[in-house]
Amino acid sequence: MPLLTSPFAELDLIRQPEQADDPLQAFDAADQYLLEHLASQGLPAECRVLVLNDSFGALAASLCDSLQVTSSGDSHLARMALEKNLARNAKAFDRVPFVPSNQVWQGTFDRVLVRVPKTLALLEEQLIRLQGHLAPGAEVIATAMIKHLPRAAGDLLEKYIGPVQASLARKKARLLTASFSERAPAQSPYPSRYTLDQPPLELVNHANVFCREGLDIGTRAFLPHLPRDLGQARVADLGCGNGVLAIACALLNPQAQFSLVDESYMAAQSALENWQAALPERPVEVLAADGLAGFEKQSLDVVLCNPPFHQQQVVGDFLAWRMFQQARDALVVGGALYIVGNRHLGYHSKLARLFRGVEQVAATPKFVILKARK
């Protein structure tokens, strides 16, 4: 893999999760463009920099020896990538403090560097939260490859930060620089809420939660077919989002024990708040984590999963395949993984390579619900 070379450092970077012979690199031309632009500003070493949504630590690891850098975002995998890439390049793994998206930044910043996320609601929430954290003369510099940079990103910068100047394109990347100007405090529209009739629930959804304005159609297809009669089974909702699958399953299985896991801090926060509202007396474990990687082998009886088919803008089944492998390892012999997936993704044949029995529980014109037995 090529090295990320900038005026600040030369780095050997890997993506997370790791996969053998990964054809994708952990940085792109937008990272390089932003680093070169920042170097041209000649910032002093005491300059405080906040890096947002740095998927694999390329920006923070490049800058941490030259400026006072804090990294923040909504991805636990991004946090892992930052720590691994710091260590990989002979820096202390905790050289850059990381602030999860559901926690508060400390102090003010002279520069805020933003990798524009796929979910613009997350960008909007982050820009609103910058109120009170921008020093006089601060700049917020957002970057992305042009094909992933919607006009709305510039509109949000203008609305919440100040006047925006767009750079020329370079290697199909662009910078948007917003100069901070004082304005009236903005009220965040997040979290959003919606209600379900069956089961009767009101669900809270923080800004980066998938389908935060309403139930996604895959989950809607899954809900009527959740397992019953589980007794005291140990159940995990893998990639839990706002927690609706686990909560609905828990209502059907009053003695079962539940763990809810998502790599998004905002999803985990939403899931915990929703569980506490629906089942206030019932214990639960809610984690922002790398799936079931930290679970002991044969520690679960049932895993529920509505797997993702993309990581940021990269579409593929790598994450789903990894989640299936994690579920197999964590399940007891005889335990079961229940999933919902688009018909065209062919999950039945993939699961058959990992589990001793795969059956179709139900189907709609677009989705299948499958049960894979270990």
Automatic annotation (TrEMBL):
GO BP terms: methylation
Highest taxon of source: Bacteria
InterPro entries named among the record's database cross-references: DNA_methylase_N6_adenine_CS, RLMG, RlmG_N, RsmC/RlmG, SAM-dependent_MTases_sf, Small_mtfrase_dom
Keywords per UniProt: Cytoplasm, Methyltransferase, rRNA processing, S-adenosyl-L-methionine, Transferase
Ranges of residues in domain RlmG N-terminal: 2-180
Short name of any one Pfam family annotated for the protein: RLMG_N
EC number per UniProt: 2.1.1.174
Enzyme class: transferase
Classification via Gene3D superfamilies: Vaccinia Virus protein VP39
Protein family (similarity comment): Belongs to the methyltransferase superfamily. RlmG family.
HAMAP family: 23SrRNA_methyltr_G
UniProt-recorded name of the protein: Ribosomal RNA large subunit methyltransferase G
Origin species: Pseudomonas shirazensis
Protein's gene: rlmG
